[in-house]
Amino acid sequence: MSSETSLEPKIVDLAGLPGVSCPCGTARRAFADVPDYPATIHLTEISDEAETHYHRTLTETYYILECDEDAGIELNGTVMPIKAGMCILIPPGTRHRAVGTMKILNIVIPKFDPADEHFD
Fold it and tell me: For residue 110, what is the enclosing H or E element?
């Protein structure tokens, strides 16, 4: 059984991509330029000044690569402790921010759209 797709394999060095400011800190975003790939993958360095925000259409999945010992994630006003190796699903409409410094892999579906970053 064969599956036809216009996707071609692609290798990206996330650490080598240019950093872009975001409400969390600095993101390095991959695969936005691949038309048939439905997501973007971000290597994000989160700072202590991360801002609470939400998305109306984007679903984010954070995989914690490294973080401060007392790091947390605030989801709709509740802060939960986190540690490296945890994975967090953030559905559309969830007000969220990281608490403490950390490095995460963020899988964004559909592709990241800066117009879908909202603040109260």
Answer: none
Work out the angle at residue 60's Cα, subtended by the Cα atoms of residues 55 and 63, and round it to the nearest 5 degrees.
Answer: 145
Length of the chain: 120
**Where are the strands (E) in the chain, listed by range?**
20-21, 25-30, 40-46, 59-67, 72-75, 78-81, 87-90, 96-99, 102-109
Angstrom distance (rounded) from CA 27 to CA 43: 6
Condensed to tens digits (0 to 9), the pLDDT of residues 20-41 reads 999 999 999 999 999 999 999 9
Instruction: Specify the pTM.
Output: 0.92
| 79 HSE (CA, 13 A, CB side) | 9
The pLDDT tens digits of the residues spanning 52-71 come to: 999 999 999 999 999 999 99
What backbone torsions phi and psi does residue 116 show, to the nearest 5 degrees? Answer: -100, 35
Q: Could you give the domains of the chain?
A: 20-112 (2.60.120.10)
Tokens of 87: 């994975």
Q: In whole angstroms, what is the distance from residue 77 CA to residue 66 CA?
A: 23
